[in-house]
Amino acid sequence: MASITDDLGRYFHAQAHTNPEPDFSTDQHLQYRANQMTQPSKKPFHSSTWNRRDFLSLSMGSLAAGSLGLSAQANQHSAEVSFFLISDTHYFANKEQPDLMDERSSKVTSALIETLNRLPDTEIPTEAGGGKVLAPRGVIHGGDVIDSGDKNGAIFEKMQATEWKAYCNDYGIIGSDGKLKYPIYEVHGNHDGPQGKGIAIDGISKRNHTRAQNGMGKVSPSGLQFSWNWGDFHFVNLGIVVGQQTKEIQRRRYAPMGSLDFLIEDLSEEVGNSGRPVILTHHIDVARYSTECSEANEANLGREWHPCDVRSFHEAIKPYNVIALLYGHTHVRNLFRWNGTPERTEQGIPVFNVDNSSHFSGPQQAFMYFELSSKRMTVRECATKDGWQSYFWTPQAWTFEY
Is 52 helix (H, G, I), strand (E, B) or coil? Predict the structure, then answer.
């Protein structure tokens, strides 16, 4: 596969997977995000620690498509499949009245759906590749659907129920049973239930079985993984991480829930040696855990994704034509190529780490828009600085050939 069209893509490989947003409590997270948005950026252009917000602070003139070497023909190949990638919606209930949603969360989550619904057939600016937004096949959600699923206690159980109900009412499943106009496929994140238990976990499993019953794809034995086809492209939702947990190996911080076994079986049965393009979604970022595999290293007990599982994941997908890995979690936009190591490379699988899409803690949000043709994948970012009261296209596009 060709390298990222514009060289700026290489600058987004680093900070989000070497020093991601900490795993804070909700209150700590609010303060962290407030500090993050008020501190001025002091990073030089050549820094390898750029994120989306630094990128947006650059002058529009310096990001014109021509100055980046962006192909002016980003839309010449007619797309066969298009979809939106969102993540980290963090539906959040009112702590004082857990049967009600927090007003900040309700406002931004509703505004995101309104934005997604009105985008098809609208113009994309030339500096973001041009053309029009196509009618999407659906939406993929990269996890952390709700906010309180990682917390225990009676109040938090009520909050989880409220958050999950609001999500289901908003998004539906098939595109006609909620406010969202398109089908949606979600994975679970650490805020949904890190050990594979809880209201959101049970709900995702139930939704995946409903999808399977409606001919939308194949569900895993755990109910938390799901695979389907859009056109010639095969998609697999894998959950929080990809791995395995047995009594013979070191305990995993986040329960893999049979994801590796499902992936291996699914790719063998549904793709085989066909060369069909494959797109995989999980929640936790991958590159910073692509370190030495050791079942005896106690430091691995605290790592969100066990390095031995990361290695097994990479080995499992190497024989296949995986054209994209999708995930959220870090709350920054990050694009790079991954070859199974933590090092930067111009060869490997394209990785798309999407920003938070409707987090209640602040107004800056984003999602990605994908167009896939038989030869090319074009990716753009749609963002907001005011909680989706308005939106803009990041003045850049990423194009990959396969």
Answer: helix
Q: Compute the distance between CA of residue 308 and CA of residue 248 in angstroms, rounded to an integer.
A: 13
The position carrying tokens 């797309």 is 79
pTM, entire model = 0.83
Kindly state the average pLDDT of the residues 16-32.
Answer: 42
Q: Identify whether the C-beta of residue 325 lies closer than 8 Å to the C-beta of residue 338.
A: yes
DSSP category for residue 3: P
DSSP assignment, residue 300? Answer: G
User: 200-230, pLDDT tens digit by residue?
Assistant: 999 999 999 999 999 999 999 999 999 999 9
Chain CA centroid to CA 204, Å: 16
Cα maximum dimension of the chain: 57
Whether residue 265 is predicted with pLDDT greater than 50 in this model: the reply is: yes
Burial class (CB in 10 A: 0-12, 13-18, 19+), 79: middle
The per-residue DSSP string of 115-182 comes to HHHH-TTPBPPGGGT-SBPPPPSEEEE-S--BSSTT--SHHHHHHHHHHHHHHHHHH-SSSSSSSSSS
Closest to 238 measured CA to CA, from 272, 217, 261: 261
Residue at token pair 């990785």: 351
Q: Quote the CA–CA distance of 357 and 390 in Å, as a whole number.
A: 13
Secondary element (H or E) of residue 66: helix 65-68
